[in-house]
Amino acid sequence: MRPSRRDEEIVDLLREVHGALRERLMQGAKGTNRSIAALSLMRAVAQEPGISLNELARRKHMPKSLVSMLIADLSIERLVRKGTDPADQRLTRLHLTAAGTRELDRWRAAYRAIAAREIGALTPMDAAQLLSGLRALRAVMTNLDTPRGDVA
Predict the structure, then answer these.
(1) In this predicted model, what pLDDT tens digit does every residue of 34-59 receive, in sequence order?
(2) What domains appear along the chain, each with residue ranges and CATH number?
(3) Which residues partner with 81 through β-bridges?
(4) Centroid of chain to Cα 55
(5) Which whole number is the average pLDDT over 22-36?
(6) pTM for the structure as a whole
(7) Is the pLDDT reported for residue 132 higher than 70?
(8) Distance between CA 98 and CA 133 in Å, rounded?
(9) Which of 70, 82, 77 is nearest to 39 (CA)?
(10) CA 9: distance to chain centroid?
(11) Which of 16, 30, 80, 146 is most buried, by CB atoms within 10 Å?
(12) Considering only 12-16, 17-21, 92-96, which range has the smallest mean pLDDT?
């Protein structure tokens, strides 16, 4: 089934909004060397302490060589700690350090502040409709059994 124009517009708008938020975040981070890819890896390590390099690369859909290089840089900066798996010495397990957690928290706060500023420019009705629509989309995408209302 071919997507409707409405569906295509929604996908395009989501992509544009996400890209604009990322761009504003990176503009606010001028002077730092942190890439979106490195932040994404840090976020994944924070969500699953002890994740292996291979699993991290698989979940992030990134080449293992790139993940390995980025993790090596984060390790040198003491943001990520690499350790061996006690059950299998061939595996490297990853953990965020306290400094890594602080850095990730700082980036999250910056991202939320940027998003809040932009969303705050919406009318209360537009913000409520956006929230409702995003919740409905998340429910569909995560197979939750929550009422979504009629979609025209």
Answers:
(1) 788 899 999 999 999 999 999 999 99
(2) 22-141 (1.10.10.10)
(3) 95
(4) 16
(5) 75
(6) 0.73
(7) yes
(8) 37
(9) 70
(10) 22
(11) 80
(12) 17-21
Which DSSP helix (H) or strand (E) runs through 80?
A: strand 80-84
Q: Which spans in the chain are helix H?
A: 5-28, 36-47, 53-60, 64-76, 98-120, 124-141
**Residue 99: how many CB atoms within 10 A of its CB?**
13
Q: How many Å apart are CA 7 and CA 41, to the nearest integer?
A: 30
Q: Which amino acid is at 98?
A: A
Residue 89 CB neighbours (<10 A) = 8
- 120, 126, 129, 135 alpha-carbon torsion, rounded to 10°: -30
Question: Beta partners for 52?
Answer: 93
Whole-number Å distance between alpha carbons of 98 and 7:
42
